[in-house]
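Model it.
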Amino acid sequence: MDATSQVAAVSGISSRGAEQKTQFSLEIHAVDGGDTTQFRAALERQMQQKIPAIKPDSHSLGSAIAGRATNLASQVKQDQQYVSKLLEQATRTGDSLQLMKAMMALNDYQLRVQTISKTVSKAASSVDSLTKLQ
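Modeled.
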């Protein structure tokens, strides 16, 4: 089978149509052993050179999001510790006012965690939608 028939078989058109429309030539060059040696030497020189360290972009969107997420996680942990402390005090003393304060703090904490969860869920689905569009 000649090159024209191979193109016709791959492209799905008849070999006669392929003969009429295009003809191509393929040049194959032998690989010289010296070329690979030169390439390896150049690659080794490149690898041995000291490449200056690239400073991370501290003003990127990713670093801003990561910084905010870290900050938010530490705030939520502090809120959890505060609510836990209030609940322990309220149960230890049995004071109804302390118990009411602890329940209000627990309610605020729960609302904050649910809001964060909903926001993160929406952001994740938005990022997923954007990546599907690309």
